[in-house]
């Protein structure tokens, strides 16, 4: 595995942006007019260089000599959660879908952490007509002893965005209810409390807000549902993404917000979020004790190319963040295609489990 640092990430970005810029300049200016092209390239290079200097450099722990292996799953295991409450043995729950085509239905799978055997959980008691395309998930043990699985679902065929709630069993999930409505617009990840409070993030103010994504507009926000009443919480996110509950606080990220935030779990109009640490391209968040593990897309242009064609590789960087201090370190970094577009990182008993958005496997990195 090659070692890369932040300087490599930035100069990759420079290269890609200059290519994109050249395309647009050629459209805007006649080929014989060279000055605008040179000026624009110099301007972009200068800005990116200043950003590089201001944020410093790092040398990621590339885990040379550390073994890793793949666990085959269904397509697109975008989100994984650790389940240590529903069975006597720990397992990962996996949200799978073909996220390039969305033609066939997705599924929820389970991976036994001892045997690494993967099975698909059957879905029971669902109303007719649900098109199952899961995204973010969370598992919570309720005071009654029931273990619930919360699933973000995108039913694009019927234009229904929802949060599905299931009772989690050994080899199946049993449908309980669906949450939808005016504030369930473009959900990504979901978190819940044992008492039934549900929190999810709308990526933008409407579904498939491509212009807002291109321009970096912060129109996304988080929503809280309590006793079937929904209200907005934290606002001003560009691609509101991962969330997790920690120490009576809600941790959140926006993929293009550049920070990991914390805000009170009991949130009102006077509540404010605070910045814990700076992150680029953050996706889902998992927490063990006072440590957060966050998979990041550090080169969004290369990620978009990978989304279009799996032959294109895209880098993955996983940060470990000490939540009380805000200090972070690069726990894992990969630029050679061992895993592409990692979206969730879970640390458990000396192993790092990495999920990804498109390809059908989880990467297990050992010897931590």
Features:
368 residues; single chain; 4-stranded antiparallel beta sheet; alpha+beta; globular
In short:
This protein is α+β, with helices and mostly antiparallel strands and 368 residues long. It has four helices and 25 strands.
| Average of pLDDT | 86
Low-confidence stretches: 1-64
Within the largest sheet, what's the order of strands? 6-10-9-8-7
Major β-sheet annotation:
5 strands, mixed
DSSP strand (E) fraction? 35-45%
Q: Figure out the total of helices.
A: 4
- In sequence order, what are the helices and strands, one letter per element? HHEEEEEEEEEEEEHEEEEEEEEHEEEEE
Radius of gyration: 21 Å
Q: Based on the structure, what is the oligomeric state of the protein chains?
A: single chain
First-to-last CA distance: 16 Å
* Strand segment tally: 25
From the spread of the alpha carbons, the general shape counts as: globular
Summarize the amount of helix as a percent range.
10-25%
Based on secondary structure, the structural category is alpha+beta
Write the layout of secondary structure elements.
Blueprint: H1 6-28, H2 35-55, E1 68-72, E2 77-83, E3 91-96, E4 107-112, E5 118-120, E6 122-124, E7 134-141, E8 147-155, E9 160-168, E10 172-179, E11 187-192, E12 198-202, H3 210-215, E13 220-226, E14 229-237, E15 240-246, E16 249-254, E17 259-264, E18 274-278, E19 282-288, E20 291-296, H4 300-308, E21 316-322, E22 328-334, E23 342-348, E24 351-356, E25 361-365
Parallel strand pairs: 6-10
Antiparallel strand pairs: 1-25, 2-3, 3-4, 4-5, 7-8, 8-9, 9-10, 11-12, 12-13, 13-14, 15-16, 16-17, 17-18, 19-20, 20-21, 21-22, 23-24, 24-25
Helix pairs in contact: 1-2
């Amino acid at each position: 595995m090659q070692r890369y640092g932040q300087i490599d990430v930035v100069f990759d970005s420079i290269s890609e942006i200059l290519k994109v810029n050249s395309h647009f300049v050629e459209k805007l200016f006649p080929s014989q007019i060279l000055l605008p092209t040179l000026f624009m390239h110099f301007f972009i290079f200068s800005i990116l260089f200043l950003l590089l200097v201001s944020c410093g450099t790092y040398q990621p722990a590339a885990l040379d000599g550390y073994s890793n292996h793949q666990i085959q799953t269904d397509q697109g295991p975008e989100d994984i959660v650790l389940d240590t409450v529903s069975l006597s043995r720990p397992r990962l729950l996996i949200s799978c879908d073909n996220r390039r085509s969305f033609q066939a239905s997705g599924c929820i799978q389970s991976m036994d952490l001892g045997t690494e055997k993967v099975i698909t959980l059957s879905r029971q008691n669902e109303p007719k007509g649900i098109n199952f395309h899961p995204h973010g998930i969370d598992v919570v043990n309720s005071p009654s002893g029931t273990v619930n699985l919360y699933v973000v679902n995108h039913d694009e065929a019927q234009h229904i965005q929802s949060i599905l709630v299931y009772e989690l069993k050994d080899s199946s999930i049993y449908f309980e209810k669906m949450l939808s409505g005016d504030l369930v617009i473009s959900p990504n990840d979901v978190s819940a409390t044992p008492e039934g409070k549900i929190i999810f993030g709308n990526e933008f103010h409407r579904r498939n807000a491509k212009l807002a994504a291109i321009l970096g507009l912060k129109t996304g926000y988080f929503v809280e549902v309590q006793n079937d009443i929904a209200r907005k919480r934290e606002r001003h996110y560009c691609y509101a993404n991962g969330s997790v509950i920690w120490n009576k606080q809600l941790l959140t990220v926006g993929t293009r917000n550049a920070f990991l935030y914390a805000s009170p779990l009991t949130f009102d109009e006077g509540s404010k979020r605070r910045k814990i640490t700076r992150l680029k391209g953050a996706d889902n968040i998992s927490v063990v004790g006072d440590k957060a593990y966050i998979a990041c897309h550090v080169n969004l242009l290369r990620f978009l190319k990978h989304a279009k064609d799996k032959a294109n590789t895209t880098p993955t960087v996983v940060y470990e963040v000490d939540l009380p201090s805000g200090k972070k370190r690069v726990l894992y970094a990969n630029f050679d295609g061992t895993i592409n577009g990692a979206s969730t990182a879970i640390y458990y008993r000396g192993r790092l489990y990495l999920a990804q958005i498109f390809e059908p496997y989880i990467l297990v990195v050992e010897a931590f």
